[in-house]
Amino acid sequence: MSREVCVIIAAKNAAQTIGRAVSSALQQPQTNEVIVVDDGSSDDTAGAARAAADDSGRLKILRFDENRGPAAARNGAIRASNSPILGVLDADDFLLPGRFERMLGENDWDFIADNIVFVDEARAAQQLEIADIAPQPRLLDLKGFIEGNISKRGVQRGEVGFLKPLIRREFLDRNELRYHEQLRLGEDYDLYARALAHGARYKIIHSCGYGAVVHGNSLSSSHRTEDLRRLYEADRAILALPGLSREERALIERHERHIRARYELRHFLDLKNQHGKGRALAYAATHPAALPAIAGGILLDKTDRFRRKAAAPAALGGTGAVRYLLASPAGSPR
């Protein structure tokens, strides 16, 4: 079987987990390259990655002296790669056996993603029993992608922006697409949305091949206010692309409002914490359009701890169960 996949791993201070990620990628027979980008780590991430190498010579390690963010790291790996298919693996996650064989067995795609299983660190170190779910292939369009990325409070997260597709380099090159390096939050969402706007065929299969380790201190739970601003500005840039339908435009505008509301709340709280309540209230008074987001966000945050407490026992499925990103289609488990 030919080796044609480049696995890209952007890593910062990931010495404790990078070895598992690298090993799982090298164990895929279809892997041609594993490129680790040490993005300004202060620990020995590069050394830990190097220690996981096999004797195939497929592992490459790049290093940025200063942290530049995951988008810049992934673009650097794409430049260094010579493989026709690209795939992203987070430094604390891992690939399950047979993943690429199942994905590459499908045809007619520019992007193809499979299911993700969420586990905690303790379970990641064990032999996982993964449900045998039928692929049930389907195409994801821009409307479905955007709608699947608008999260709702009190609902188990299932955003399709979390998916980790394989990507045909030829499509990216032909449409001059790369990650936007100013984004440190939502960089995957932005690339996939722009690709779909350019006509990408994005196929999803429900069989599971990607293991995501859940941490309480993930980037998505500790992002900066500035990251939110840049993300809603990225939506505005997508809205400027030609050829969007009315329905697509309405959904992107909805996503932009959703992210902008989160930004307005965070900005208000930053002003309060850094400059006092008076400064924050003055901002709210002079930005009336932000008032619903600020008031609603404060109310929801004050009640959120009760919802989290009620949901905590089932966070990862309780006694031995695991949680999947994509719900299984009816009758699909084999």
TrEMBL record:
Keywords: Glycosyltransferase, Transferase. Residues 6-116 form the Glycosyltransferase 2-like domain. It holds the Pfam family Glycos_transf_2. Gene3D superfamilies: Spore Coat Polysaccharide Biosynthesis Protein SpsA, Chain A. The keyword Glycosyltransferase applies. Its EC number is 2.4.-.-. It comes from the Bacteria. It is an enzyme of class 2 (transferase). One of its GO terms (molecular function) is glycosyltransferase activity. InterPro entries: Glyco_trans_2-like, Glycosyltransf_2, Nucleotide-diphossugar_trans. This is Succinoglycan biosynthesis protein ExoU. It comes from Mycoplana azooxidifex.
